[in-house]
Design goal:
The protein is α+β, with helices and mostly antiparallel strands. It is built from 7 helices and 6 strands. The protein folds into 2 domains: 121 residues, Alpha-Beta Plaits, CATH 3.30.70; 41 residues. Strand 1 and strand 2 form a beta hairpin.
Length: 197
């Protein structure tokens, strides 16, 4: 019995482990619930007065207390190149050809410059868990957006390509997650109108 359970666990996909069922019109389905994602435009607090900073904090507290099913998420907004840089460093040490070493060094310098530009880029999101039927979800979505506006937040509702990109970056899969197929391998399927060979 234990071996059978262990085999089941090994065969589970990441999608199953994190509970994602499918994309919906407004977010992703997780079990019977739907998750909606709202990207919050960050505010540069270094230019705000202490009073304005306190007001922003108070607005967030009011929002979170009024809507207990909302969670805050902060993720990188771009891919990390640490593994690439480590690989190039190892290649540089092992490469006997000086011309190839120069090229590898240029690649390393390029990655350093790109990483410097994006190293502090973060995205802040509010994740709302919506329960209930279709009409309840539409009403809840409108309520959330109304409340965000009332509390003075600049936001945008993430659509499917944005969610795919965010998940791809989170799982270190690709910087271009929005271009990934919805079903793994679907881009390799050839659909012909005739019968299968």
């Amino acid at each position: 019995m234990a071996k059978k359970q262990q085999k089941k666990k090994k065969g589970r996909s990441v999608q199953q482990l994190i509970g994602i069922k499918t994309f919906t019109k407004h977010g992703i389905r997780v079990g019977k619930d739907e998750l909606l994602f709202y990207a919050i435009t960050p505010t540069n607090i270094s230019v705000l007065s202490a009073t304005n900073i306190e007001a922003k904090i108070r607005n967030m507290m009011v929002l979170l207390s009024a809507m207990p099913d909302i969670e805050v998420s902060c993720t990188d907004s771009s891919e990390c190149f640490d593994d690439n840089k480590l690989y190039l460093k190892e290649r540089l040490e092992d490469e006997p050809n000086s011309n190839i070493r120069k090229l590898i060094k240029k690649d390393m310098d390029f990655l350093d410059s790109v990483q410097t530009d994006i190293s502090t880029a973060r995205q802040f999101m509010l994740v709302a868990r919506i329960k209930g039927g279709k009409s309840d979800k539409q009403k809840s979505s409108a309520d959330i957006e109304r409340k965000l506006r009332e509390e003075g937040f600049d936001f945008r509702h993430l659509k499917k390509p944005d969610i795919k990109r965010m998940l791809a970056i989170y799982f270190d899969a690709s910087l271009y997650g929005e271009q990934m197929p919805d079903v793994d391998g679907e881009q390799f399927l050839e659909v012909n109108g005739g019968s299968e060979d």
